[in-house]
Specification:
seven-stranded antiparallel sheet, alpha+beta, about 210 residues, Protein Transport Mog1p, Chain A, 3 helices, about 25% helix
Length: about 210
Amino acid sequence: MKKLILISILSVLSIAFWSCSEDYLPKPKGYNRIDLLPQQYVALPDSFPYQFEISEHARLLRDSSWIAEKYWIELYYPYYDATIEMTYKATHNNEEVLRDYFETAYKLTSKHKQKAYAIDEQVVPLNNGNLAIVAELSGEVPSQFQFYTTDSTMNFLRAALYFKTATQNDSLLPVIKYMQEDMIHILNTLNWKENFPIEKLPKLEEPNA
């Protein structure tokens, strides 16, 4: 089963590289009017093995989970009470390790199948020349949008969107779309740092600060 999952993912990556459009936008949906903050971005601090632009409305926090690793972060949006959880793994040019990370990411997304009306996965070419798998989840699921990407040699990055409110997803559609666009902006501005010293520690806010 593991081999079938991996073969499917790698096959989709290969085919989609030639068939996907350069710019991915989440599918348009109907929703009620809601006031949203202007989307403005700033560069991530220079203390990570990856670089991209984040919303100026987001707080950069340490990952609050007990299994968190050094370069795992949370982008918390106080205005929406939403969080983008981002996990990073160094792959050390090991193909087997990279396949394990792909399989784990695939399984984490698949866990939502019981509550999701649908999971729409696409492979998207990025501005840095790499590919990303993005998943848009419909229904009363805790995570409505996810992605994972790699440079195929040294780095792997996964992100998942979560809301801390009990509001139903139908009412959150405008905010979900807003957050999706921010996550696509992260992907389109993502660059990996060569020869980054992994022992270097980033400066982050504590989650409860």
